Each structure stands twice: as C-alpha cells, then as structure tokens.
Amino acid sequence: MQVSDRRLTRNGQLIDDLAMKAVCVTCMDATFSLGYTGLAELGRARTRTDVWTVERLAREGLCCYGYAQIVSFLKSELEHTIRQMRLRGRDRAITLVLSGYGPTGAFLTLLTNAEDHKGATLHTVSDRFQVHHFHRNHRQMHRLDLCANGSGEAAMESMWEPLRTVLRRYYKSDPSDIARAMVYLIRRASRDAEHGGYVGRNCIATLLAPDGSFVCEDHRENLGYQIHPPHYLTPGMAFRDIEIRTGPEPPSWW
C-alpha cells in the first residue's frame, strides 16, 4: 500500500493540489505502485515527475522486462536528467518509492539521492542515486510496517505516539481502513509549523493485492473518498491521466 498527499510545490509555491502522483505498473515478474517525493518536475521541459516516469517507461517498453531492469533504467535516467538540469543543493533531491509483489513476495524499493535506507534525510544530496531493496520475511507481524518519506516524514516526527497507535491498532484491519488511517496522519502532518506547507490534505492511496490486482482511492478533503484510476503501465500499453466522467452530457473535450 502507498498513501501520499497530492500536493506539488516549486520553490515553496503551490503548483497543483490535486496531482495524480500514483503510478501502477505490471511487468514480466512483478506488479507494483510507484510514488515520489522531492522534485515535482524533471527534465529541461519541466515535465511533472509522475508523467516523466510514465513516458520514459512507456517509450522504452520497459514493462516487457523484469523489475530489476526497470529499477536499473530509472536509476540511470534520473542520474542523467538531474545532471542536465544543473540544480544545486536540496533543489535536486528526489526519492522514488516502489512497492508491490514479485516472485519473492512483498517488496519495497527506495531509489533516492537524498535519503538513507530508513527514509531519513541525508546531509548532502548527490547526483548519484542509491537503491535500497526490502523484502517481507515470513515472521508473524504484530504491527504494520511503515516507511515514511519526504516532508511528511519530517512532519510526522512530532506525532510518533499517534503513529505507533495506528501501526498496532490497524495491522489486521481492512486495507481501506488502513488507508483512511494513513490519510488522517498525513492531514495531521500538514499542520506541522515547519514542514506542513509542503504536505497537502488531498490524498491518494494505492492498494495492491498479491494476485496483481489494485485499487486506487482518491481521498479529497471534505468529500470522503472515491475510486480513481492511477497512471497505469502494462506490457504493450500505457495509460496516463485517466478521467472518468458521468452525466447526461459528454465532457467538453469529447
């Protein structure tokens, strides 16, 4: 499961509070979701990071290969792109978070130039990216496992007690209930005095099952939640910025 806010900022200024950050991918040996924190736009054309990711994977037909090749490709593309952008300091910090199911079961991968293997912020941002892989072992769980990244991770440092309560209370709950609990924590983090401005209150939750199926929930403030299709890539096809509309009249762009 991945849960994130939908806010994008540039130099502290709001770009979009309803950006679709969730990308779901089915490749030859895995199904996973991909999210990110850090740079909202990549490349000389300043393409939104999620769109940049979808376009790169689709253009190279990477879904016809295995998960390891996808991670290696993204690492190389990110390093090349970051060098081209010639950003300085923390302005070039970015972390891609990939989680899903493969031949060995559940996994999590961090592809980052700004965080360590625990998601903690590094003192120095590098043009070289690190890859951190984690696999679920077979020991019985007694609480949820959580990896928090980005400004949300920093803001959550002030609320470890409610976080611990959620991890213990919800570990046997329905995935949608867990997602709602995570949304609640993100919205609490948005009130943090130092980092809260970078955390939005509209959220997206991607829930994956071991059989490769997934559900993407759109949690908008004051509107509850509804099902929302993410960007989706599968061997031979790629879908981006999917919209579903209902009503007596066709949408304006039809």
What percent of the residues sit in helical stretches (DSSP H or I)? 10-25%
| Alpha-carbon Rg, integer | 18 Å
Q: Tell me the number of strands.
A: 15
**Main β-sheet, in a few words?**
7 strands, mixed
The helix-strand sequence is EEEEEEEHHEEEHHHEEEEE
Number of helices: 5
Round the mean pLDDT to the nearest integer and report it. 87
Strand order of the largest sheet: 10-9-8-5-4-14-15
Walk me through the topology.
Layout (H helix, E strand, L loop, with lengths): L1 E4 L2 E3 L2 E4 L6 E4 L4 E8 L2 E2 L4 E2 H12 L6 H19 L8 E9 L2 E8 L17 E6 L14 H7 L3 H10 L5 H15 L13 E6 L5 E6 L5 E3 L3 E4 L2 E3 L15
Parallel strand pairs: 4-14
Antiparallel strand pairs: 1-11, 2-3, 4-5, 5-8, 6-7, 8-9, 9-10, 11-12, 12-13, 14-15
Keywords:
254 residues, four-stranded antiparallel β-sheet, 5 helices
Structure report:
β4 and β5 form a beta hairpin. The chain is an alpha+beta fold. The strands form four sheets. A seven-stranded mixed sheet has the order 10-9-8-5-4-14-15, with helices on one face.
In short:
The chain has helices at residues 49-60, 67-85, 150-156, 160-169, 175-189, and strands spanning 2-5, 8-10, 13-16, 23-26, 31-38, 41-42, 47-48, 94-102, 105-112, 130-135, 203-208, 214-219, 225-227, 231-234, 237-239. The chain has 254 residues and is α+β, with helices and mostly antiparallel strands.
